[in-house]
Amino acid sequence: MRPTPSAPAPQPTVAGPTSRSPRRWLVPAACVLVVVAVGMVAWQLLGGAPSPAEHKDATFLDAEHPGVRGFENGDCFEDPLIARARGEELLATVECVGAQNEVITFVSLDDLPGWDQAAVEREADARCAAEIHETFPAAHGAGYRVYGVPPSPGTWAGGDRDVMCVVYRPGESFETEPLIGMSGGAQG
Q1: Are 74 and 93 in contact (CB under 8 A)?
Q2: Sheet arrangement for strand 101-108
Q3: Which of 38, 91, 153, 175 has the least C-beta neighbours within 10 A?
Q4: Average pLDDT per consecutive 10 residues, the chain (188 residues; last block may be shorter)
Q5: Is 76 helix (H, G, I), strand (E, B) or coil?
Q6: What is the pTM of this model?
Q7: What DSSP state is assigned to residue 8?
Q8: Nearest Cα to Cα of residue 84 among 67, 97, 104
Q9: Can you tell me whether residue 107 is helix, strand or coil?
Q10: CA gap 118, 139 in Å, rounded
């Protein structure tokens, strides 16, 4: 057997003078900025930040969604997908500017003979639309739409017959408080 040659001994390193030039950080800093910018664009393109819903009706939300039953007239709240993207399941009252929904009024379904989901959803939207048209005739012309948040099967069984009427602007967050926009002028 032949002896195996040994590896060369490691050479000692000598610390030399350090550069104090700010340019040595320029390339790494630029790389970090590029990576962050590309990441933000990719996050947006891949659906990282949900957009406000284009269309809402009585199937969009019901009385059992966490937080809904605590809303009152004039309360604004975010779309559930937008709140969920921040890790919040519970819908809460927020400032109207930047929100996507505002509670305008409540209507009743006391005259319906019993639970029929299709009839409840249809009547919720129809009654809210009629109420908004009567109370705020400028709403549609100002770009607002309305949807009803109906009782769920569970809340109906407990006696709930109220529908929460909510205004929104298709695909947009509010730039002004909706009641101001519906009272005369268009938003924005």
Answers
A1: no
A2: 76-77, 101-108, 162-168, 145-149
A3: 38
A4: 59 55 60 47 49 91 94 95 92 95 96 95 97 91 94 96 96 88 50
A5: strand
A6: 0.70
A7: P
A8: 67
A9: strand
A10: 26
